[in-house]
Amino acid sequence: MKYLSLVTLSLLTLAPIAQAQQDNSEAFATADCVTLLDSTAVSVQPTGSGSFAVYKKFKVQTVQGGVANRVIKYDYDPLTAYAEFKQATIYRAGGDIVNIDVTQACDYAAPARAIYWGARQIMLELGRLEPGDVVEYEIAKKGFTYALLAGPENEDDSRFIPPMRGQFYDIVPFWVSEPTLRKVYKLTIPMEKEIQFQFYQGSCASSMHYENGKKAYTFVIEDAVPTKREPNMVNLFDAAPKLMLSSTPEWKDKSLWFHKVNEDYGSFNPIPEAQKKVDELIKGKKTEMEKIAVLTHWVADNIRYAGISMGKGEGYTLHNLKMNYTDRCGVCKDIAGTLIAFLRMAGFESYPAMTMAGSRVEQIPADHFNHCVAVVKLSNGTYIPLDPTWVPFVRELWSSAEQQQNYLPGIPEGSDLCLTPVSAPENHYLKLKANNRLDANGTLKGELTVQAEGQSDASVRRVFTSGYQQDWRNSMEAQLLAISPNARLISVDWGKNPKDYQAAPIKITFRYEIPDYALVGDGVLLVKPTLDKVYNSVKSFLRIDTDLAERQYGFKDGCSRLVEQDETIQLPAGYSLVNEAKEETHQSTAADFEGSLSQTGNKVALHQKLALKKRVYEASDWQGFRTAVNAFKSYGDYLVIKK
Length: 643
Description:
By secondary structure, this protein is an alpha+beta fold.
């Protein structure tokens, strides 16, 4: 890396900023810090191992910017990569130059939760930075990022070679966290290697030329500003500029490799004690889906999620059944691997699959995965995905919180990239029905029935499957207290055994009394519908800000869902509803709503039915979604009851 002279540096810090400010004046002028150059140069060896030179130069513009950047941190995995600071320099606003002693950099275990695989960080303290200071630093990294086959005992350079020896891939976020004058990614590969690439969600200047007997690809963006975030928007990988590169021709090649590496390792070899458990579980089960379900749920409910580094067998290689069944804990690949072995011992064809929870996977086979699941082959020859990691105490076999998610099965015949389908809203219904009686003194007495299925069932039932039994009634009472702090739970019926989630969808019946629920005036009662506050934790769509008029990016909800709320209020003698009766419907590709408010005799009836049709929505879905959800919310307004 060549470093700039102080004269050149002055030109870089002043003239380009002035030019960039013509287009993004406010962003550059008001930023706490401006990146002058963000450059990554990668040199790939024939083995697929890469040497990375990460270079960054930034200018501090405010005191806050100085505080935020006084320490530089960089993450790496020591089992697959090595990273160190090569140099760091501060060019003071007054003209002084400070060379930072990079030998004082710290290398320590990175903060972690639930998964402890030995990830590390290097950290370099720069000290006090003032407005006008310019900092440049370089980090050298060797290895790869996403996978691991070799264990920590290998100390030579072989640990830096990717699992698919000779193949190289990279996923390069081209979005920025602060205004950036120039961002560059340069890849140099041996002449005989082929690389495919695509730039998504934006544009860049790109070139390929020959350099010292190698191919050199360069990608550049200039005058970039941070992506404006929107509430509940899709992952930045699905919204902001990114570059995907891979030397692997197609996903089928990765699928075949993934299948072979686990079969060769013996990840799913049976053991007698596990075979005994499988035979016990499937005894009396007649259909293939009954057998698949009982095995999936047992694994989901009995293998705890906890990850520690176990040496050889991390990354793409799934730990063997003996380890998983003995330890009864692991991360997604251990839980999926246990299920695959169980299914094979029950006579099924089953294999692992890679997926990406949180964002989509592109057609460029660049290994954008962070999660492992299973697939099983049915008698009709089709494969279906199973995810025991995400369905503990859930009535589904594949969590619908993972709808519209790409996955790649590692099967003998090879597979292209697959996509999980949308689950119909009625598969995840939440039905609330309240029959209430209002007295002239404002006291409300009533009965509430809650029914749920799918993801809604899992949310309603969680207190029974994950909580202590002595807390069950308190949790039920908390639902009523959300309606009013005066609410009194008279009785609750949650069935014979609400922990048994496989028996039937959840059903709970409350009986209650709420003194002083209505606001009482001279011949007038003001009362709110009770269902507006009940089980709102299940109604994830209520946490999406529908005051936002427009969206530029796609957005997410927890799951597709059907919510039906029906409430009747028997009025005191001689009282009637002042609010105008209404009936409305809204339909779109994203969401449907129907609702009504009416009075028949001495009863007021409210009806709401909201169908949310996806988990991941396009920006164009926003108006239909917003209209339906806002209509649903409008039925929570006060009702005016007059004598």
